[in-house]
Amino acid sequence: MKIVIWGVVAIAYLFIATEKGSATLHDNACGKRDPMGPKIAGGQDSEIRAHPWMVMVISNKPCGGSLINPRYVLTAAHCISIKDMKVRLAADGLGPSLTKAFEVEVDMKIIHDKFVYAGNTGYDIGLLRMARSVQYTDYVKPICLLVDEQEKPVQTFTVTGWGKNQFGIRSHILQEATLNNADLRRCSFKFWNSYVLFEICAESTKSDACGGDSGGPLSAQRKYDEEERVFQYGIVSHGSPQCTGIGIYTNVTHFTNWILSAVELYGFDDVQGCTLYHV
């Protein structure tokens, strides 16, 4: 993430499904983090226990993602490649041996059927199914997602990633920063984008997501059942090439039904090979 005198934003998602008219959690373990882990803002170094849902997407293009349950990773559609892909979990930095990091092959790739790889087309959302389910630890936990609940205004977000810094170099340590919710018309005007209703416009005078941060979560902390948890509201999608403090994030709350349908459709059963699906 680029720190233009400032930092990087970390975002968490909570997935909520409805049951008998009341909101319940998609995964009871979601949105929780080590209370001893650092909670650093302003584009400074962080660590995986503070954001245990952070996933590094390993492919021909560097990206991030977020764990939403033991088998699925949420990311941007433009991060998904036809080539073999892996994800790295429990990683503070880029090195595979740091902390308790481990890698899992991707056995299924799912992108929104309205996404087009060329241009700012919206619908920049996808899922990666890991070849096996992972166990939750202090370093590996899912982020929360909102389902069937009226969206509540959020003014301040967090974004996290290993993207490029102000010197154009990918960070070797997980970074986080704070962003503010901005008027969608600002992003629509700046990026000539007609899909802003499906997206979130966020900005900061100090930091911005940058190359390598794509697919990572835009999150905010909120109370659920008298407990503070982290919910994901957006996915890093695109912005200016110079990473100048304003960017577009796929609005996850708009696509929760799509996410739930895809997970239900493809489930947790093992498959042979790695296939790209449009749903």
What does this structure look like?
This protein is mainly β. It contains 2 helices and 16 strands. The chain has a 6-stranded antiparallel β-barrel. It has a 6-stranded antiparallel beta barrel with strand order 4-5-6-9-8-7. A hairpin with a 6-residue loop joins strand 14 (227-239) and strand 15. It is globular, with a radius of gyration of 17 Å. Mean pLDDT is 77; it is low at 2-22 and 36-42.
Give the topology, please.
Blueprint: E1 16-19, E2 22-25, E3 44-45, E4 54-58, E5 63-67, E6 72-75, E7 86-89, E8 102-111, E9 126-130, E10 156-161, E11 175-182, H1 184-191, E12 199-203, E13 217-224, E14 227-239, E15 246-251, H2 256-266, E16 275-278
Please give a quick description of this structure.
The protein has 279 residues and is mainly beta. The chain is 7% helix and 33% strand.
> Oligomeric state of the chains?
single chain
Question: What would the average pLDDT be, to the nearest integer?
Answer: 77
Task: Report how far the terminal alpha carbons are from each other.
Answer: 30 Å
Could you give the order of strands across the largest sheet?
10-11-12-15-14-13
Write down the overall geometry: globular
The overall strand count is 16
Largest sheet: 6 strands, antiparallel, barrel
Radius of gyration: 17 Å
Given helix and strand content, the structural type is mainly beta
What is the tally of helical segments?
Answer: 2
- List segments where confidence is low: pLDDT < 50 over at least 5 consecutive residues: 2-22, 36-42
SSE sequence, one letter per element: EEEEEEEEEEEHEEEEHE
Q: Assign a percent range to the helix content.
A: under 10%
Strand content: 25-35%
